[in-house]
Design goal:
The protein has 314 residues and is an alpha/beta fold. The chain has 2 domains: 3-204 and 301-313, Spore Coat Polysaccharide Biosynthesis Protein SpsA, Chain A; 227-296. The protein is built from 10 helices and 8 strands. Strands 7-5-6-4-1-2-3-8 form an 8-stranded mixed β-sheet, with helices on both faces. Strand 2 (35-42), helix 2 and strand 3 form a beta-alpha-beta unit. Bound molecules: uridine-5'-diphosphate (UDP) and magnesium ion (MG). The site of uridine-5'-diphosphate has 17 residues, from strand 1 and helix 3.
């Protein structure tokens, strides 16, 4: 009998829980042949999320939970879940039921009978999402695909069923700045993509506002590509070339025409352009340095405050 682990990262999801638990129960009832383990990960929610988790565990011991000492973010939750998981097959899903849980059986059957290591879902529509956000997201995946070696499918979800070897490979990457979508593709393995129509959140509001989506994108680029550093160097070089040419022009003009230096506007242009470029390049370098700093500290990826699972398996 195969064991399937479902990991659910949660942050202030008490509104989703009344829908989440029945949906998970339905799935487990439908797939009676398989054993299940549900790992609910609480990011130190401010509402009753943890209460719901304790209750779920008390009602049915297949539900386990880990509660963090603060919000370490969805990527840390996924790492914690994967680390604690004991299933032969492991999947991650959102608490808001935006992931197509009804496809789990199909994915499982597919993996069972095939040579693939992972069955992953991607949205073939972004219906219901704000226009600007979905356009920016699409642009991000396109950019990511072209500047990093990891292939990233647009609309890819974290909802994917993976076989144990792939999970173990992911766990070997212990970096603290975790961009899970990049990690999924970086480890490789054979992935089969399943398309589905975007669904709206079942209850509550998105926990990933535009601002953090932007930070997330920046983190992803820095973690999986060094192209911006190269681009920054090229730009710096380009500016230098322009500056030298202009300097020669100024000198020659002065030698021939003996004009007094009257070029205040042009001087300002060059100065501002130069400073702007330098600051931008420094900013790019700073991003990499910051990420290196975070990695070098080797801080734990998450801290557990309360859990229903034994601590030994850490
Ligand atoms: N989430 C989390 N920690 C956070 C933000 C989100 O664990 O800091 C969880 C959230 O509870 C949900 C999942 O990650 O289960 C996806 O978040 P959300 O639905 O808000 O993101 P969206 O679908 O809008 O991208
Ligand atoms: Mg969502």
């Amino acid at each position: 009998m195969d064991k399937i682990t479902i990991i659910v990262p949660c942050y202030n999801e008490s509104e989703s829980f009344p829908f989440l638990i029945p949906a998970l129960n339905d799935t487990m009832n439908k797939m009676k042949e398989q054993e299940f383990e549900i790992i609910l990960v609480d990011n130190c929610s401010e509402d009753d999320t943890l209460e719901f988790m304790r209750k779920a565990h008390a009602d049915d011991p297949r539900y386990q939970y880990i509660s963090f000492s603060r919000n370490f973010g969805k990527d840390a939750s996924m790492f914690a879940g994967l680390k604690k998981s004991t299933g032969d097959y492991v999947t991650v899903m959102d608490a808001d039921l935006q992931d197509p849980l009804d496809m789990l059986e199909e994915m499982y059957k597919f993996l069972k009978e095939s040579d693939y290591d992972c069955a992953a879902a991607y949205r073939n529509t972004r219906k219901g999402e704000p226009w600007l956000r979905s356009e920016l997201a699409k642009a991000f995946y396109k950019l990511m695909g072209s500047i990093s070696s990891s292939e990233m499918v647009s609309g890819a979800r974290d909802f994917r069923l993976m076989k144990r070897p792939m999970v173990n490979a992911i766990l070997e990457l212990e970096e603290s700045v975790r961009f899970t979508k990049g990690i999924f593709s970086w480890v490789g393995f054979k992935t089969k993509w399943f398309g589905y129509e975007n669904k709206e959140r079942v209850a509550g509001e998105t926990k990933l506002p535009m601002k953090s989506a932007f930070t997330y994108a920046m983190r992803g680029i820095v973690a999986f590509s060094t192209v911006p550093l190269v681009a920054a160097s090229f730009m710096g070089f380009g500016v230098c070339v322009v500056a030298v040419i202009y300097l020669l022009y100024v000198i020659i003009k002065q030698l021939i025409l003996h004009e007094a230096v009257a070029g205040y506007p042009s001087l300002m242009c060059v100065l501002l352009f130069g400073i702007g470029t330098i600051l931008m390049v420094l900013g790019v370098i700073g991003q990499y340095l910051a990420q290196m700093y975070l990695e070098i500290k080797h801080r734990p990826i998450y801290i557990t405050r309360e859990t229903s699972m034994s601590e030994k398996k850490e």
